[in-house]
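Thread amino acids onto this structure.
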């Protein structure tokens, strides 16, 4: 059995206007294709996450924290998808996955969440060039990114410049806990790596969309799943 990969769900409404917590099919299928076992991580709070503003959500109770930790203990890896809102629940999951040295991959909003880890009252900027960064077709190549040769991302891909897909209107201003390891031609932060951590990578694009057609996307997920396998094996040894 492959490593268990937790996926943070996102909040929305269905065609009837009913609030839902969901995982994109592209994410689920990509993790399966890469060799992982996907499970959805849903918030334990009895609130409507879609309509409740992040700043207005109540703090997690002790019982709710225990419910989250119970889920995290099962994980070998964590995938943080794109979305529209970052919640206290999201950061709680990230914090305790980091404490347990669980491999983490974040995309789009997931990257922005990792980049702003431990930054109080952080703000996201509007992208300087919407035409460059926001493509309706998620899978279409949008622009190139330049990768730092001293980064894990460079070791994974073996290339200093790649083309990526892009579907975002906001971008990261700065980061203090992470190394910036890739930027676009207009200076937007495109990839970050948490300092002094085995595998915590965030990319602003969507490799989960293009894994079937893009070798770089495939390499990113292969490395992520391999790290998760190592985490799974280390837990078996400890037991």
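Threaded sequence (239 positions):
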């Amino acid at each position: 059995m492959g490593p268990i990969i937790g996926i943070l769900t996102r909040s929305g409404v269905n065609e009837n206007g009913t609030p839902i917590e969901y995982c994109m099919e592209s994410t689920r299928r990509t993790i399966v294709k890469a060799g992982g076992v996907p499970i959805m991580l849903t918030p334990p709070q009895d609130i409507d996450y879609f309509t409740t503003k992040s700043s207005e959500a109540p703090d997690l109770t002790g019982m709710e924290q225990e419910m989250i930790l119970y889920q995290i203990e099962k994980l070998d890896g964590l995938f943080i998808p794109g979305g529209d809102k970052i919640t206290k629940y999201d950061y709680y999951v990230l914090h305790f996955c980091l404490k347990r040295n669980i491999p983490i991959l974040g995309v789009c909003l997931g990257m922005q969440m990792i980049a702003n880890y431990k930054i109080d009252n952080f703000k996201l900027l509007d992208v300087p060039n919407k035409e460059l960064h926001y493509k309706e077709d998620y899978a279409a190549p949008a622009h190139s990114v330049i990768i730092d040769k001293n980064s894990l991302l460079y070791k994974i891909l073996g290339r200093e410049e790649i083309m990526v897909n892009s579907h975002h209107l906001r971008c990261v201003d700065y980061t203090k806990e992470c190394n910036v390891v890739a930027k676009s031609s207009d200076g937007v932060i495109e990839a970050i790596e948490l300092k002094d951590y085995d595998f915590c990578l965030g990319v602003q694009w969507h490799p989960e969309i293009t894994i079937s057609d893009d070798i770089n996307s495939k390499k990113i997920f292969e490395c992520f799943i391999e790290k998760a396998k190592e985490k799974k094996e280390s837990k078996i040894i400890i037991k």
